[in-house]
Amino acid sequence: MKIHNPFRTALVATLGVGLGILLIGSVENLSTVLLYVGTALFLSLGLDPLVTFLERRRLPRWLAVLVTILGVLAVFVGIILIVIPVLVEQISQLVTEITAIVQRQTLLDDIRDWMVGTFPNLKVDDVFAYVSDWLTTNIASIGGSIGQGVLAASGAVLAGMFGAFIVLILTIYLTASTPSLKRAVYQLAPASKRERFIDLADQITDSVGYYVMGQVSLGVINGILSAIYLSIIQAPFPAVLAVIAFFFSLIPLVGTLTGSTLIVLICLIPGLGSPQTALAAAIYYLIYMQIEAYVISPRIMSRAVSVPGAVVVVAALAGGSLLGLLGALIAIPVAASILIIYRQVLIPRMNEL
Prior knowledge:
Blueprint: H1 6-29, H2 31-56, H3 61-103, H4 106-118, H5 125-176, H6 178-186, H7 194-232, H8 238-249, H9 255-267, H10 275-300, H11 309-352
């Protein structure tokens, strides 16, 4: 009968707990680096279908990668050179307008007149007098808060630019070395099941790639059409609103609705827009969302794995809770990958039992 040494057992258990705590702490400390690597891997999988397309046109791999990266960089730089000056100017005007609205009584007077006209029996004078006195007393602190917010936003922009540069370098490296990385991963599978493993892995990576390209295409379409239409109806700051439409369209299922609602509310702010402009924007986005859902999205996403709407919502919420916006974006192809494994591995095995 083997007798266990209590001291050795306690020592091993303590070392195990300490190692677990050390690993958890290391993951937390490396969370930013892991986020950069995950983003770059996600983007490289999105660029891989385009590289494969160029390879089929008899271009060597290195040239296909170079053409793809240069093309993406050219588009990115072109957008920056065209949009950023207009965007900075319009954001400055927006901040100025909002600050002016906060610092004067016009907004309060407009709201008070509307409430008195709509609800003549409602006594609101005391409430608006209190709000007016509070704004007058705290206007300096409000201005200081706006200034601090601008400084914080500037710091966040600089940090974001540094992170974007790191992600860009990693994306170039991962895109160039995708075949070798795939081969290294394929070697981990047993030889008897390697062919099936390669087939599933290719389906998953292709699905992720087509999803990324499709979602970005939807964002570009929404951003361009929004910029054109919002300029026609003379909405406030159309370049800023078009950028909002683009980024929210990257969020699956609920992104277009959320971005459209935000744009309509901005068009409704007194001093910036008007009810007529907001109504015109609301009608446009209602029509656009139907066209996107039933015409544009099915055509663009035809080669990506179809994920049920309920799974999209749950995956987006879970990914957003874990990693923010990036998590919401990555969660959908992860869910698609799980569906591929479920349909092609789990279900056939269960049917064989």
